[in-house]
Write a structure and sequence with these properties.
By secondary structure, this protein is an alpha/beta fold. It has helices at residues 16-34, 47-53, 59-68, 86-98, 163-180, 197-209, 222-231, 243-256, 295-307, 311-326, 340-351, and strands spanning 6-12, 39-42, 71-76, 103-109, 127-133, 143-146, 154-157, 184-189, 216-221, 238-241, 264-268, 274-278. The protein folds into two domains: 1-102 and 269-352, Isopropylmalate Dehydrogenase (3-Layer(aba) Sandwich), CATH 3.40.718.10; 108-259, Isopropylmalate Dehydrogenase (3-Layer(aba) Sandwich), CATH 3.40.718.10. The chain contains eleven helices and twelve strands. Strand 8, helix 6 (197-209) and strand 9 form a beta-alpha-beta unit. Helix 5 (163-180) packs parallel to helix 6 (197-209). It is globular and about 55 Å long. It binds nicotinamide-adenine-dinucleotide, 3-isopropylmalic acid and manganese (II) ion. Manganese (II) ion (MN) binds next to helix 8.
Length: 352
């Protein structure tokens, strides 16, 4: 049975207000063409709402997301007028934690070699799936401040690693590798410096890997991972890592695939409501100008459609994005001159 055919839409802040409507135009087109009907409800959440009435994330909404929706489609959250970022923490991290979206799935796939900053690398060299742990690590807010604003101030940010949390993300990475015919999984941590939490990652990785003898399980410390991703990206098929390292490594990976405007992601709990969003943020430096690249959001729409039971539509959207790249239908940061709307039109024209 397909998941609930209803999506919650949160355009959010900055360019989220531009790229989400763009991707929804693509969805309109797909629905009309294929006779689909996915119900939509849009939520006014983000910096404007917070500044207007103090609401970040209404308490009852999380329950509605869980019960009534198959997926959540998010633009970005972050606004210079809210320096504490409290609304983003409540809405985005709140959804990740409270909906238990433990897999942050971030593909790094080069579609056209012209957009790769590395010399002599092509699409066959850069095709990596990152499994970022998404519900614990350094993101839980556990810790505190002591003697704040005094010379003796202390600030502690604790990294939480649970056996259950570490095991399920490692299992997800191996299960994916197994089903997708990948031959290796690389786990990355910093166990040489972080002796407690990352020792748990080391032991758990070895135990789960033993259940998949046909998949090569290998390890790199995260500093070396960054180096190797740039030097020999073709070594990597599947990467599994913790929450913070996954955040950092996937911005690096975004550049390998052509830029942050092309990087898509899913925050997933298999079989339950899950959240799909571009990897990039609200880009206040270009917001309101109509020049944001919509392709990361189009690819995130594809991941969402796959989650909703339409893998073939995900395939079509990947082809459409490839087409735009090959034909130079791109925004300014990729060397083109097209607007958000013009690139979206090019996607739709390809799909027609
Ligand atoms: P950012 O990703 O918003 O921007 C980094 C750079 O990439 C900027 O120069 C921006 O112009 C460019 N860029 C990003 N997306 C682009 C696109 N689609 N097309 C063209 N160029 C694009 O990162 P930042 O500046 O560190 O963050 C801005 C705000 O967004 C902050 O408040 C941050 O916390 C937030 N943020 C939110 C999310 C999210 O909601 N998932 C993710 C990252 C950052
Ligand atoms: C991302 C973002 C978020 C993260 C921020 C906005 C909290 O950078 O989704 O990559 O660090 O997870
Ligand atoms: Mn990030």
């Amino acid at each position: 049975m397909k998941p609930i055919q209803k999506i919650a839409i949160i355009p959010g802040d900055g360019i989220g207000q531009e790229v989400v409507p763009a991707a929804l135009r693509v969805l309109d087109h797909l629905e009309a063409k294929h006779g689909l009907s996915i119900e939509r409800e849009t939520f006014d959440l983000g910096a404007e709402r917070y500044l207007r009435d103090g609401t970040t994330m209404p308490a009852e909404l999380m329950e509605r997301f869980r019960e009534e929706f198959g997926a959540i489609f998010l633009g970005a959250l972050g606004d210079p007028r809210v320096p504490s970022n409290v609304h983003a923490k409540d809405i985005l991290l709140g959804s990740r934690f409270q909906l238990d979206l433990f897999i942050n799935l971030r593909p790094i796939k080069l579609l056209d070699s012209r957009y790769c900053p590395l010399k002599d690398k092509g699409p066959e060299d850069i095709d990596i799936m990152v499994f970022r742990e998404n519900t614990e690590g350094l993101y839980t807010g556990i810790g505190g401040q002591f003697k704040r604003d005094t010379p003796d101030e202390v600030a502690i940010e604790a990294e939480m690693n649970t056996r259950k949390g570490v095991e399920r993300i490692i299992r997800a990475a191996f299960a994916y590798a197994d089903s997708a015919g990948k031959s290796s999984v690389c786990m990355s941590d910093k166990a040489n410096a972080m002796r407690h939490g990352h020792d748990l990652w080391q032991r758990t990785f070895k135990e789960v890997a033993a259940e998949y003898p046909h998949i090569r399980a290998w390890h790199l410390y995260v500093d070396v991972l960054c180096m190797e991703l740039v030097r020999v990206p073709e070594r990597f098929e599947v990467i599994v890592t913790n929450n913070l390292f996954g955040d950092i490594v996937t911005d690096l990976g975004a550049q390998l695939q052509g830029g942050i405007g092309l990087a898509a992601s899913g925050n997933i709990h298999p079989g339950r409501v899950s959240l799909f969003e571009p990897v990039h943020g609200s880009a206040p430096d270009i917001a309101g100008q109509g020049i944001a690249n919509p392709l990361a959001t189009v690819l995130s729409l594809g991941m969402m459609l796959e989650h909703l039971g339409y893998p073939e539509l995900h395939g079509q959207l990947k082809d459409a994005v490839s087409h735009c790249l090959t034909h130079g239908h791109v925004t300014r940061e990729l060397g083109g001159s097209m607007t958000t709307d013009a690139v979206t039109d090019a996607v739709i024209a390809f799909l027609s």
